[in-house]
Amino acid sequence: MSIESHIAELGHVLPQPAAPIASYVAAVEVNGMLHISGQLPFDGDVILTGRLGDDRDIAFGQKAAEKCGLMLVAQMKAALGSLDRVERVVKLGAFIASTDDFTDQPAVANGASDLMVAIFGEAGRHARSAVGVPVLPRGAAVEIDAIIAIRQG
Asked: What is this structure's pTM?
């Protein structure tokens, strides 16, 4: 079964890859690694916004992180042509808009981490950072970037 068929079997639909909103590219492939710029949590055409610990809870943050993860996978497909070229998810960097006293960033980031494992199996297990920030572009609740090892050829 292809990765794309597996994603559909999981009940997910990959979004259209988002275009960069400033002076950068969505993904850069170098030396067998794909570096993907930070992706925002799109739900259709709407960005999931808010701050964890203020107007948003952990469940909302996990949904936003999962949406970021789906956008990362869409960017992988756009850059590589086929998700079957993904050898391993190496690292995710999760940025969570949150209040000073909110400390559950790792639980929020699990929305994306769990998705990577669901899609790619053991190859989806990765290193990760999850940090709180005061604000993200467009008021997004979460932004996540990634480093992916790719198969050549």
From this structure: 0.97
